[in-house]
Fold these 2 entries.
Entry 1:
Amino acid sequence: MANTSSEVQLKPLMDYIDGEFRRPEIHRGIWLENPNTGERAQEQLAASDDSIGRAIAVADQVHQAGTWANTSIEERAQMLEAVGAELQKLNPDIADYESYTTGVVKRMTGMLGFIVAGAWGLAANMLRNGALYRELPGPNNHTAEIHSKPWGPALCLVPWNAPAALAAHKVSNALAAGCPTILKPTEWAPNGCNALAEAIHRAGLPKGVFQLVHGGPDVGAKLVGDTRIRAVSFTGGLQGGRAIAAECARDFKPAQLELGGNNPVVIMEDADFDEAAQGVAMLMTQLNGQWCRALGRLIVHENIADKFVDHVFGVLSQVKLGDSVSMASDMGPMIHSGHLAKIKGQMQAWLDKGGVARSSTPLPDLGGNFFAPTLVLGCSPADTQHEIFGPIGAVHTYKTDAEAVALANGTPYGLEGYVFGKDEDRAMKVGRQIRCGEVKINGGTVISLNLMAPRPSWGWSGFAEEGTLETLKFFCGTRVVGIEGPMKFG
Ligand code: NAD
């Protein structure tokens, strides 16, 4: 395991098609950066049209032959567990690659290793617990069988903020469902996903059951648009989500879309300042604020707003911004200079409309794409509707609980909400009214309230909810089979 980004060696990128690793043919002329220093790291590569076509043809053949779909539940579960065991060994390297390429600190990428390796065992357990089959009473003392059957070749598209963990969640469930699966990693942080292909290869999954092709949105779009791809699971931004939804609508192809958020954090008048300020700081710094569930709007009771915001800046002044690969850093840099410029531009638009920016976290002397977590005060809620995928939040004040709820619900998104307050009943009452997939009271970690709870999205945050069981079910169509007779005419 490396101690600083200068010690990380990225391996050459490889496609994995029909059981073989091969170098992607297309040079994109776009470079990954070491976000800690701004130095060029590795050129983005993409699969050629021939390679994309071959990967789809192989996935289709595997599906037509039924070789993967017809494996027994136990056989499939054991193969998934074997992949999880290989990933456990590769996890330290994956954490290095992910911290290096995304700028997310190693304390977080290391912790997310529990998903990278653990998703496979979870999927295996669900298979053994009968997730793909149940029975209901049918007519004439017969049974109605309810089968969950794989749709066919599945495509998984992942973003750059936690690519290996998101890929492991999607791919393990697609394979558990019985779908031959193609992963297209993010072009901005593809290296951890490449290690996932290595683990699958070492675990000995049959050829063509899993494949990986590199490239940008253009490669993703070619895969989505092919009629042989029967289901698409996408995590990413609004623009990509809309394009994929439109394309999938053409053939009624199931699409699971987990998109962005502009997440409200409501601070009740009775909130414990220390606890709530810690929560706000976590929600601005975890994954460097480049997190779909990060703080978007800080909605504070007007009687405490000034003092509370000061308190938040007290906590943020202690945050150690530093090299993302070092275990000593609390927060790292933005993923690349283009993204840093984008979020600065989005913040400037708020400032141009009368907002005032405040931050207190010292910047390290490293160069790179560092940006101190920032709150912008004084904007109209009408101007803070959209996701800024970075550590920037807008502060709005309220008088009544109803106003707090209206501000929380005043964006087109609906992913996550947070409420901090000592009176838990009152905080829960506010939380129940926030229109989004999950609301946490007095909490702000990256972990869901329960491993088996669904992770739904409302509004522009997506549709076809994900979750431990939900994602497995997404990759399956349902088939009901049973005997109705004896038939008597008339
Ligand atoms: P992105 O949409 O640019 O890309 C995501 C992936 O999809 C990449 O692999 C990309 O190459 C591919 N892609 C993009 N457009 C495509 C298209 N039209 N057709 C096919 N493939 C396409 O997203 P990003 O910039 O990598 O990630 C940031 C976004 O992801 C943010 O909006 C964030 O909120 C969201 N996100 C959501 C969740 C969630 O759980 N809801 C989790 C993480 C990130």
Entry 2:
Amino acid sequence: MPQGIFFLHAQGYEVEVWAGAQPPTRDELLARTQGADALLCLLDDKIDADFLHQNPQLKVVSNYAVGYNNIDVAAATQLGIAVGNTPDVLTDATADLAFALLLAVARKVLDSHRTIGQNRWQGWEPMGHLGLDLRGKTLGIVGLGRIGQALAQRCHAAYDMDILYTAQSPKPEAEKRLKAKQVSFNELLRQSDVVSVHASYRPELAELFNKDAFEQMKPTAIFINTARGGFHNEQHLQEALQSGQLWGAGLDVTNPEPMRPDHPLLTMPNVVITPHIASATLETRSQMSYIAAQNIVFGLEKKPLVGFVNPGVWG
Ligand code: DGY
């Protein structure tokens, strides 16, 4: 994240950068944060109440991500610590990856690729590698926020897909623009040909996609998760795919992360998994870095952060 680091240096701040190839352990992070005014952390750094209480001098915690389920925001707010995130700039990159996973699963891109290397390509097969068309199908979006809308926009424009969604509040503008319809979670599961998760993760939503949910989905349905691995029960997902309860799955997030390299899902023909790379483009990560750094500078100056998770923190 050099852009953000340059910016912090240019603003006259002393910056300590973790240079290890692997992320710091919790103890290392705790120790290095002692005495710091601000922390720029990653989405798998667990910044819980205990961590914050051991670093009460912190004035800003800036997450290098839009999701901030790794941070105890209530504890931070109680301690007067501003919490920042990086919304907007990663919307397109994340929606693009969800769209790429969807196409890759629907058209069996990864399994077809493996076929060649494994010397299983014997010639053109009339009934081989048959995937699914997306035109006119129904996309169910769980959490129609910025990223959910960006995926819906892609699917609506490219394939005239019907859009169903669940959200905490109705989205009238998106309903008009995308002809989207708000439905209950169960209705969305039953009616959708593709279900894609884009909600903000909260503990009460843990394993929302479990045996019960997968059982309600169509056997021709595709499950896409680019939000957080905690949304799905991985064993139940595997069983649903193996039994034909579900047609395919595309995941950019796993439960837990990192996924073990011998996980059965990795070799299943109807599954494509990427290692949490949705925001990983040069342009997007650079913008995220700048916003994360701006959040620190603004927070230390007690000005509104660019991505302000707890705007009421200073009363
Ligand atoms: C985020 O920023 O929360 C995303 O998970 C990045 O891919």
